[in-house]
Design a protein that fits this description.
- There is one protein chain.
- The protein is an alpha/beta fold.
- The chain has a single domain, classed as 3-Layer(aba) Sandwich (Rossmann fold).
- It has ten helices and twelve strands.
- Strand 7, helix 6 and strand 8 form a beta-alpha-beta unit.
- Helix 2 crosses helix 3, helix 3 crosses helix 5 and helix 5 runs parallel beside helix 6.
- The longest helix has 18 residues.
- The protein is globular and about 65 Å long.
- The termini are far apart.
- The structure holds adenosine-5'-triphosphate.
- Adenosine-5'-triphosphate (ATP) binds next to strand 1, strand 2 and helix 1.
- Pfam families: ABC_tran, oligo_HPY.
């Protein structure tokens, strides 16, 4: 396995002009996805996960500014050179299978249109490949599925269709935005198992956004924890889940035995992107914050085992009530 990451997000900042002022949605975010590995990005609603994926896919909203950073895919800076871009080589599985297909066109035709634009070969080649992909994602009666409209599939089947769409141009990387959130628990499990199998069989890299630590544990080799648009902590999933170091990660995991992110147990609220506090963005809510935490953003501290934590006080114990 090559050491060079397939995808490297380097010190990326994304701002957006809004009516409420400048929204600092991402700030100095770095992460890497090695070939053939699955990396999770976790954080609660509003922490910037979707914006990160949109930056990678080149579909940021109008008015977005990128004041700094780079996104390298297969060694090329795809922010600086969209022509050298990654489209087709990066597949995308969206969050909501109900909203992501146009109801008035056959699902198969919608995927064939993506292939026409981004994959080599004739329509006949594409059809044959799509039937094969429908089988790979375990859609029943793959030939007939080509002729069906979106409403003729269940939610889980539609998510399988979208996974087939994401794979249709032979991507090296698939990015997935909470692809199981809209599904029931049993279907969620099946879709996660499918993604795991396909990634292994096709030596795919996956960048997987989730708010659910259970999903993370089941699927991801490594994790990046985002808080208010900055990286709080990153490292191998098992190590981070077993011994979280950032106060934010520790509180999240301590509050929620089922490991689904919900900040009800942490006092205060997540700041709006237009009103980020100075210094460490978590300091107003942090039980071990010092006055200096309000001064400057804490740089990441490297820890053994390929881990990093953006907190100089990561070795301090949290007070018991905070962990109760
Ligand atoms: N088009 C926009 N206009 C104004 N603010 C925006 C826009 N897009 C995102 N934001 C703000 O940026 C922050 C990050 O949003 P983003 O959707 O990236 O977060 P997220 O972690 O993906 O959330 P969720 O889990 O709810 O999808 C939020 O505070 C959001 O309100």
């Amino acid at each position: 396995m090559s050491d060079r990451p397939l995808l490297a997000v380097e010190n990326l900042s994304v701002h957006l002009r809004t009516e409420a002022g400048l929204a600092r949605i991402l700030d100095d975010v770095s992460l890497a996805v090695p070939p053939g590995r699955t990396v999770g990005v976790v954080g609660e609603s509003g922490c910037g996960k979707t914006t990160l994926l949109r930056a990678i896919l080149g579909i940021l909203p109008r008015g977005a500014l990128i004041p700094g950073g780079a996104i390298r895919f297969e060694g090329r800076d795809i922010l600086a050179d969209r022509a050298a871009s990654a489209r087709g080589r990066i597949g995308f599985v969206p969050q909501d299978p109900y909203l992501s297909l146009n109801p008035v066109f056959r699902a198969g035709d919608q995927i064939l249109e993506i292939m026409r634009r981004h994959a080599p070969g004739t329509r006949r080649d594409h059809r044959a490949k799509l039937v094969e992909l429908f089988r790979a994602v375990q859609l029943p009666d793959a030939e007939a599925a080509l002729r069906k409209y979106p409403h003729q599939f269940s939610g889980g089947q539609r998510q399988r269709l979208l996974i087939a769409a994401a794979l249709s141009c032979d991507p090296a990387l698939v990015v997935a935005d909470e692809p199981t959130t809209a599904l029931d628990v049993t279907t969620q499990r099946e879709i996660l198992a499918l993604l795991r199998r396909l990634a292994a069989e096709r030596n795919l890299s996956l960048l997987f956004v989730t708010h659910d630590f259970g999903v993370l544990a089941a699927l991801c080799d490594a994790v990046t924890v985002l808080y208010a648009g900055r990286v709080a902590e990153a490292g191998p999933t098992r190590a981070v889940l077993d011994d979280p170091r950032h106060p934010y990660t520790r509180l999240l995991l301590a509050c929620h035995p089922d490991r689904a992110v919900d900040l009800a147990g942490i006092p205060g609220t997540v700041p709006a992107a237009t009103a980020q506090p100075a210094g460490c963005r978590f300091h107003p809510r942090c039980p071990i914050a010092r006055p200096a935490c309000a001064d400057a953003p804490p740089p990441p501290v490297a820890l053994p085992g390929g881990r990093a934590v953006a907190c100089p006080h990561h070795a301090d114990a949290l007070p018991e009530p905070a962990l109760a």
